[in-house]
Write a structure and sequence with these properties.
This protein folds into three domains: 166 residues, Reverse transcriptase/Diguanylate cyclase domain (Alpha-Beta Plaits), CATH 3.30.70; 56 residues, DNA polymerase, domain 1 (Orthogonal Bundle), CATH 1.10.150.20; 144 residues, DNA polymerase, Y-family, little finger domain (Dna Ligase, domain 1, 2-Layer Sandwich). Helix content is 40%, strand content 19%. It is built from 15 helices and twelve strands. Strands 5-6-1-7-8 form a five-stranded mixed sheet. The protein has a four-stranded antiparallel sheet with strand order 9-12-10-11, covered by helices on one side. A three-stranded mixed sheet has the order 3-2-4.
C-alpha cells in the first residue's frame, strides 16, 4: 500500500503564541531571548526581521539596530502546553503522529481513507481544528514520504494544502531550488553554484562521477532527495529509538581541553547505558548549550559497529566538537544523543581498526563496567577526566 504522509506546520509558533498572549507585541518588533547580558536572539518577529535582526545575533547589537525592540524570555512550558494540545488533536486522525519541531508535525494517514475520507479533506479538517484550538493558521502538505510532504507545505499559504500525487515526486521536485532540501549548508550550496546546479532537476541529472567528485559521499544521498525519495516511517514520541545524555558543567567554560574532558565523561555515560541495553548506535550527535542560551549541534552517521565502546564514542564526539565549536562563549551544558540502533555483534575481520586495539579497548571497558555496576558510575573515570570538578548528569 502506498504511504500517505501529512505534514502540518505553523510557522514561528513560539512567536505567534507570545503575540496571542500579549497583543501589544503584534504592533511592535520583538525577539525571543534570555534576559542576560550575553544573550543571543533565538527567534525574531517579522517587524524585528525588517530591522535586520536575525536568530543568532547578540541582543545587545539587536537593541542598537532597533531602539524599540522588545525582548521576551522564551517560555517553553507555555509553548509545550499548546504543542501537546495539537499533538493530542492529531492523534484523533491517526495513532502515528511525529513531532518534527515546534508547531510542526507528521501524520501517517495510510489506510485511513475509508474512515477519514480523502487525505486533503483530512488536512483541511486538521487545519480547522488547529485554528479553533490556538487561533493560529497551519500550512499542510500531503505526499508519499516525509520529505515531499514537508516541502509541499512550504509552497502554500496558511490554511491551504499542497498534495503531491504518488509517482509524481521527481516532477514535483525538479523545478525547486536545492536550498529547499534539509541539510544543505553553505559549503554544499557553494559547490552546487559552482556547478551551475540551480534546480533539483539539474542535480538529479548530473552524472554520478561528477557529482561524487564535487560533493563526496553525500552525492548519492542528495540525488535521492532531489528525486523526492525520503523517509516514510513516522515515529511517535514513545517509539522514537533514542538515548540522550545531558551533562551540565559544574562551572561554565570555554577551555577546549576542559570541554573535551567533559565530553569523555559523556562518552563513558552513554557507552555504559548502551551496553546495558545491548545497543549500537549508527548516528550520534553533540549539542553545546552556551551561557547566553544559544545552541550549536552537529552529528555523524557511521557505518561500522563501534559506537558502544567509550573510546570510539569519544573519538566521534571529539570530531563533531571540533567541527561545531566556533564560538568563544562559555559552554554550560553538553547534550549527546544516540539513535539508529542495532544489536552488537562480533565480526572483527570487518572492523577497520587493528584487532588487538579493539580487544584491548573491549577488555578495559568491560572492567570499568564491572567496577561501576558494583560501586556506582562515578566510582572510576578514565585518565582524561582526573582533576576536574565532578558534575551530575541526567
Amino acid at each position: 500500500m502506498e504511504k500517505t504522509i501529512l505534514h502540518l506546520a505553523i510557522d514561528n509558533i513560539c512567536l505567534e503564541l507570545e503575540a496571542l498572549r500579549n497583543p501589544r507585541l503584534k504592533k511592535n518588533p520583538f525577539v525571543l531571548a534570555p534576559l542576560n547580558n550575553r544573550a543571543v536572539v533565538q527567534a525574531a518577529s517579522p517587524r524585528a526581521s525588517d530591522c535586520g535582526i536575525h536568530p543568532g545575533m547578540p541582543v545587545s547589537i539587536a537593541k542598537k539596530r532597533c531602539r524599540s525592540l522588545i525582548v521576551v524570555p522564551p517560555d517553553t512550558s507555555f509553548y509545550s502546553t499548546y504543542q501537546k494540545k495539537l499533538f493530542q488533536r492529531l492523534m484523533s486522525f491517526s495513532p502515528l503522529v511525529e513531532i518534527s519541531s515546534w508547531g510542526k508535525f507528521y501524520v501517517d494517514l495510510t489506510g485511513t481513507k475509508r474512515l477519514l475520507g480523502d487525505p486533503v479533506d483530512a488536512a483541511y479538517k486538521s487545519q480547522k481544528q488547529f485554528k479553533e484550538l490556538t487561533g493560529l493558521e497551519a500550512k499542510a502538505g500531503v505526499g508519499t514520504n516525509k520529505l515531499v510532504s514537508q516541502i509541499a507545505a512550504t509552497l502554500v499559504p496558511p490554511l491551504d494544502v499542497c498534495e503531491v500525487f504518488p509517482g509524481s515526486e521527481s516532477r514535483f521536485m525538479a523545478p525547486l531550488n536545492p536550498q529547499v532540501l534539509p541539510g544543505i549548508g553553505p559549503v554544499t550550496r557553494k559547490r552546487l553554484q559552482e556547478l551551475n546546479i540551480t534546480s533539483l532537476g539539474k542535480l538529479a541529472s548530473v552524472p554520478n562521477e561528477i557529482l561524487k567528485a564535487a560533493l563526496g559521499h553525500s552525492s548519492t544521498y542528495l540525488r535521492d532527495l532531489a528525486l523526492g525519495k525520503g523517509e516514510t516511517e513516522v515515529h511517535t514520541p514513545i517509539s522514537v529509538p533514542r538515548i540522550c545524555v545531558k551533562w551540565p558543567l559544574p562551572e561554565e567554560s570555554n577551555d577546549r581541553e576542559m570541554l573535551l574532558a567533559h565530553i569523555m565523561g559523556t562518552s563513558e555515560k552513554l557507552g555504559y547505558q548502551l551496553r546495558k541495553e545491548n545497543r549500537i548506535p549508527y548516528r550520534i550527535s553533540l549539542e553545546l548549550v552556551y551561557s547566553d542560551g544559544a545552541r550549536t549541534r552537529g552529528q555523524k552517521t557511521v557505518s561500522e559497529a563501534l559506537l558502544y565502546l567509550d573510546h570510539f564514542i569519544f573519538l566521534t564526539l571529539k570530531e563533531i566538537f571540533r567541527r561545531i565549536c566556533k564560538r568563544r562563549v562559555r559552554v554550560r551544558e553538553l547534550i549527546v544523543r544516540a539513535e539508529k540502533f542495532s544489536t552488537p555483534f562480533r565480526q572483527l575481520s570487518l572492523f577497520p581498526w587493528d584487532e588487538k586495539i579493539y580487544e584491548k579497548e573491549e577488555k578495559l571497558t568491560s572492567a570499568l563496567d564491572t567496577i561501576r555496576s558494583r560501586y556506582g558510575f562515578n566510582s572510576i573515570y578514565r585518565g582524561i577526566k582526573i582533576n576536574i570538578p565532578r558534575c551530575k548528569s541526567n
